[in-house]
Amino acid sequence: MDPTRPTLRAHAYALLKAILSTAVVDDEIPANPCHIRGASTSKRVKRIQPATLDELEAIVSGVPDRYRLMMLLASWCALRFGELVELRRQDVDLRAGLIRVRRGAVRAEGRVIVDTPKSEAGVRDVAIPPHLLSVVKHHLSTHVSGRNGLLFPARDGFSTMAPGTLYKVYYPARQKAGRPDLRFHDLRHTGAVLAAQTGATLAELMGRLGHATPQAALRYQHTPPPGETQPSQWLCHASLRARDLTQLLSDMGIQWTILGTTRRSSPIVLMASREGDLPTSGVSP
């Protein structure tokens, strides 16, 4: 097997070891020959540096309107690309403030396969941060048609978006943000760090990320960007960036006002997506 792909090799070894363990239980073989210590794990080849809030803001403002919510959900809700492109209007519960992840899309042999998430833990309800609710409402009313409509379809409006379609807008945006190294999946790592910095427990992180084991969730934990190492600093920075985002949201027809802060310095926001709408209030994560 290709020695330049250590993760693939580790996964293949783990699968073989599991198959042979079952064979031992079924008395098909006397012992499992797969006993190389550490062969089922691999070291991370690339050191991941999560996006700062400044960089995230730059990326969101740097993509067309129809892609902005995708950037925000990939980061603040830590959703996978395959989960995002299969989200439909019926999966979004604005009243409860939840996104119900029930399906994911993958491409194999030139075709799109839609199935349940790759693990049982992947089927989950993800809380939408209150400061994103108006953005979600704006996106649903502007870019989604029908109860079963995709939130982020291909350009034809109904097919599953291909990764290449996203990259055409994401790559220029990350370049302008000064992060040409930031993969789209790294936004999910950013979301995990954001959640941890605001006090989420390991169990809560596992549930939010859709991980079945603590080890998987811990792989998404990184040292925060320089200058934002303390939770209080991170939260205060988030509050300041919320103010900076006011203009961007106003350009999208969304009003966003910071009313104050909680005891934990988390900003309280008042949001209304259109004139005449009843505002909703909440505490951002």
Q: How would you explain this protein's 3D organization?
A:
This protein has 285 residues and is of the alpha+beta class. It folds into two domains: 1-45, no CATH class; 56-128 and 140-228, Orthogonal Bundle (hpI Integrase, Chain A), CATH 1.10.443.10. It is built from ten helices and eight strands. The protein has a three-stranded antiparallel beta sheet, with no helix packed on it. The protein has a three-stranded antiparallel beta sheet with strand order 6-7-8, with helices on one face. A hairpin with a 4-residue loop joins strand 1 and strand 2. Helix 2 packs antiparallel against helix 3. The protein is globular and about 65 Å long. The model is unreliable at 229-240 and 256-285 (pLDDT under 50).
Offer a concise description of the structure:
With 285 residues, the chain is of the alpha+beta class.
Feature tags:
single chain; 285 residues; alpha+beta; hpI Integrase, Chain A; 2 domains; 3-stranded antiparallel sheet; 41% helix; 13% strand; globular; disordered C terminus
